[in-house]
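BUG-720 | component: ligand-complex export | severity: low

The export step for nicotinamide-adenine-dinucleotide jobs runs without errors, but we want the raw record kept on the ticket for reference. Input record follows.
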Amino acid sequence: MTDTIKFEVDSDGIALLTIDLPGRSMNVINGDVSRDLSSLIEKVATDPAIKGAVITSGKPAFLAGADLGMLGSQAGASSVKDMFENAHAMNRQMRRLETCGKPFAAAINGLAMGGGLEITLACHYRVCADDPKIQLALPEVKVGLLPGGGGTQRLPRLMGVQASLMYLLKGDSMTPQQAKAGNAVHELAPLADIVARAKAWIKEKGDPVQPWDKKGFKVPGGEGAFNPAIVQTFTGGNAMAQKETLGNFPAVQAILSCVYEGHQVPMDAALRIESRYFTKLMMDPSSKAMIRSLFINKQAADKLARRPQGVDKFQVKTLGVLGAGMMGAGIAYVSAEAGMTVILLDTTMEAAERGKAYSQGLVDKGVQRGKVSAEKGQALLGRIKPTTSYDDLKGCDLVIEAVFESRDIKDDVTRKTEAAVPGLPVFASNTSTLPITGLAKSFSRPRDFIGLHFFSPVDRMPLVEIIMGKETSQETLARAMDYVGQIRKTPIVVNDSRGFYTSRCFGTYVAEGLAMLADGIVPALIENGGKQAGMPVGPLDVGDAVSIELGYKVREQTKKDLGDAYKPAPGDHIVDRLMELGRLGKKAGKGYYEYPEGGKKFLWPGLTENWPSAADQPDVTEVKKRFLYRQAVEAARCLEETVLTDPADGDIGAIFGWGFAPFTGGPFSLIDAVGVDAFVRECDRLAQQYGARFAPPKLLRDMAAKGESFYGSKVKAAAE
Ligand code: NAD
């Protein structure tokens, strides 16, 4: 018995190691588990009374992987040699397990991720509970790492190189059935029988030598530099990886290298190769930033870390949604999926029903793909109640409006709701542009009014930007966060401002693309530069998708609201011209791109006719820098103006809200990685060359002068 692993030996001399971290709902590999596992492996290896061992878990999941918080603090912190030793420790331990001369079997009772799955792969035999909901995965690539506990070596030796690369390079999960079909587990059994089956294997067969340690072992499907199928796999794999990552995700290349190099040598050398690449990634600032933003800070946000203390937990049982259009229909679906009853209101019954039909479509797809049972799907649909009557909103705990983006219409529906439900606890607006403080004026209790800004499509986008109006109370914020937690989305909290945080910064990406067009930069260079900078699509492409007309309308409203204070953008005249020409965006079938029926879209040749390309074109690195720095400088302004109050919210919001280059860890992580001082100097240069929009805010200058960074010395806005 150790602190983290229960140890028992049965009358057959078979040990059972049950990993069960005290005080945690999930097993993870941390220093304690690692130490305990090593000592028990030694015990099994050296105690002659023990014939072999089964490893299982005392929790519903098997093991969720390494504690990335621990890894994150190690990244870049110590010497290269220390980092290699840390990285190689698990490989050494797993190698000891598989070569100690005693058979080990894994009884996988639930989810096994990363290091959790790697422990099982080092065992000589794997029995998995026959439950299609169990996820088995090596998801390290998603946070910029590679599976460093032997995953890049053992999975391909079990499944074959090509099949395993699909899982290693994407981090996708496999079901137990897929794992069995692919040779990654040996046996499926009912949950209650897995330990007994694992013990039976030890008793009956108990071969303590891994296939790859036997003479004549061959990787299924082949290996090596001269095998035509493998050469093809790596040639294609490299090209595809390059196309998809544009060189921005070193982990993808590193995994390919681990598999390629590691399969030409015996296991011990292969594991050293893996540990070397792992160390290299850990030294890359991008891994550290990705672990911080995509994992540690995101998880904290998911656990509602910023929820005000001392407010009773709020549970939305009945939700009202006003407007059953694209957003309202999506909000209704995710809320009904989370178990809420949803009153979906529109001006006509037909529109309200259409909104519900959206959920029907998603449920049908889910049932077809086996992701949801027909009964559960029906129950979900039964919870959505279309209506045109405000009286039906009685009893709602929260009402979210998602009607047309018009102040008058929003005022009208807010008043009607309050008249019908006088004691409504919280009213929220899903506006994307109208300041919340202004909208709250049509509600008699502005303290209970808040912004809940969803992203489209609601069922797929993980972020909700919560906007505090001037008078919104902390209690309302806590309640809004509880709702976001109920629908399992990630909240960030921002203060009221034009475009809030996400729309404001995202807008600078498209605007910079137009500024470049005005500067005479070739459109293809603009689009490819955006993608190479790490953005999911080019600025003109996304401008079309969002709609040029919408951008124009938002700008006109802003002009009206700001009057003389409006600062024209360098590309304003381009938008005006496209509007004149009726090129309103993708929905209209023409915008910055042409959309031929049945064909592939292409950049509208009129762009270069109207805005001729300059003879001298910039290097793509300058284009990339303009995109990333322009957005990052705007994010820093948001922090200075207390629109944001925490850089972590800024990084999470940027990546999950508008797809800001994930490998940077977000705009604040980017500034930290460049160094605040160097970033300020470069922004000064960009401002001089391209305009004041690049001018660094005082916050950054002050930080540079004091040698501060966002995450080293976590700067918080003055308001906090
Ligand atoms: P939409 O046009 O698809 O849907 C609006 C719905 O509201 C329509 O079904 C309409 O019939 C209904 N409606 C209009 N007036 C009404 C009234 N008086 N009472 C009840 N229902 C009424 O629009 P959408 O894209 O779903 O946007 C809705 C809101 O969400 C807007 O405020 C928009 O700015 C915001 N938003 C949109 C996006 C996006 O990507 N589309 C993203 C975030 C936020």
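Assignee comment: Attached the raw record above. Residues 322-328, 345-347, 351, 402-405, 409, 412-413, 430-432, 453-454, 456 surround nicotinamide-adenine-dinucleotide (CB under 6 Å).
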